[in-house]
UniProtKB/TrEMBL annotation:
A GO cellular component annotation in the UniProt record: nucleus
Gene Ontology molecular function: DNA binding
UniProt-recorded name of the protein: TF-B3 domain-containing protein
Lineage, broadest ranks: Eukaryota, Viridiplantae, Streptophyta, Embryophyta, Tracheophyta
Species of origin: Forsythia ovata
Classification via InterPro entries: B3_DNA-bd (IPR003340), B3_domain (IPR051442), DNA-bd_pseudobarrel_sf (IPR015300)
Protein localization: Nucleus
């Protein structure tokens, strides 16, 4: 999910689609029909508009029913949103939607919440076909990533590590650059070894591309990549083929940087459902924001301790009340959790989904504020 951590809860316009996703194999599997949506997108663009009763029902029962509408056809459905911890599943009539619309891997679904109803659309003829001309080796262009995918639960499962990619995308943007002998080998052997380079770190991996009919799996070393990069559900991976190598990149969460003076708040975030859950209390903060605006001011020894032990004790102060807390900052790979007394803070400040928290580091202490 690549956006600023700050969210302005303005009314959604009818033609805006804040949630967009390329459908995966599990999304279009009618034997186990459900649509996986990232936690942050759902809590930022759907739950914040639900009634307090709906939010409470979801928090207590783990799921909530509501009306959904296919904006392409006008068909209405009674569906459910099920909380799965780090992501959500849309269930109910999803199998009927898959069959009725003939949904397939790689198609884009767009979602918004409007007037107490979940609206969705799957536009036709979304794929822009690139002419099958052989690529001339040229310097890499940083913003040219023809294949983009939001990672699902199966994509980041280290017990069964593979990354499924839509057949059309692979054939239009990867295989088109291969020589005929390489394509023939893939067709006969159903898999072929390739070099893959992590564009973010420069690290090279020897991997395999495996043909699975309507899609391709990237295997061999994928589990190591998941662990090394701390990949999680909802992150976007970008891929391209250049100079006989598969390049991939997973951007850190983006935010709007500001000067980190005493009166400024460089980290701002709209609280999500998991942020205000007192049963499992923790505040999730974007990795890059923490590293740029908190760890930047730490000593090398403190940073090393966090890296080795994956958590460290810190002092925190509520700028609204002056209360002090002994807390912990826990490293989770691509993000950080603030734990310790967070449950107490939720209860005392009566925090709710959609409220904005502001954070900064000042004089060896984590300062936070939740404006009324």
């Amino acid at each position: 999910m690549k956006r600023t951590a700050y969210y302005n809860a303005a009314a959604q316009m009818h033609d805006q689609w804040p949630i967009k996703k390329a459908l995966t194999l599990s999304d279009v599997d009618i034997t186990h029909p459900f649509l996986t949506l990232s936690r942050q997108q759902v809590e930022t663009h759907i739950l914040v508009y639900m009634t307090p009763q709906q939010q409470e029902h979801l928090r207590n029962d783990g799921q909530v029913g509501f009306n959904a509408q296919d904006d392409d056809t006008g068909d209405a459905y009674v569906m459910k949103l099920k909380w799965r911890g780090s992501y959500y599943n849309l269930i109910g009539k999803w199998g009927k939607v898959v069959r009725g619309k003939g949904l397939d891997v790689g198609q884009e679904i767009k979602i918004r919440w409007f007037n107490g109803c979940l609206h969705f659309s799957v536009p036709e003829q979304q794929v822009v076909v690139v002419p099958p001309a052989r690529m001339v080796a040229a310097p890499l262009v940083q913003d040219h990533w023809p294949i983009k995918k939001v990672l699902t639960s199966s994509d980041v499962d280290t017990n069964h590590p593979f990354l499924p990619l839509p057949r059309r995308s692979v054939e239009d943007h990867i295989l088109v650059h291969w020589v005929p002998q390489e394509r023939e080998e893939l067709r006969k052997e159903e898999q072929v070894s390739i070099n893959a380079r992590d564009y973010d770190t420069g690290e090279i991996h020897v991997m395999k591309l495996k043909w699975r009919g309507n899609y391709y799996n990237l295997i061999g070393g994928w589990a190591n990549i998941i662990r090394q990069k701390g990949l999680g559900i909802g992150q976007e991976i970008r891929l391209r083929w250049a100079n006989n190598c598969l390049y991939f990149s997973v951007l850190a969460e983006q935010y709007v940087p500001t000067a980190s003076g005493h009166d400024n708040w460089p980290i701002k975030k709209a609280l999500t459902l998991s942020d205000v859950d007192t049963n499992h209390p923790f505040l999730t903060l974007p990795g890059k924001a923490v590293e740029d605006h908190i760890l930047f001011y730490w000593t090398q020894q403190a940073r090393e301790q966090l890296r080795n032990e994956h958590q460290i004790r810190i002092n925190a102060r509520d700028d609204d009340t002056g209360d002090l807390y002994a807390m912990k900052l826990k490293w989770r790979g691509s993000y950080y959790n603030l734990i310790g007394k967070w449950g107490k803070i939720i209860r005392e400040k009566r925090l709710q989904v959609g409220r904005e928290i502001r954070v900064r580091w000042d004089n060896g202490c984590l300062i936070f504020s939740v404006p009324e």
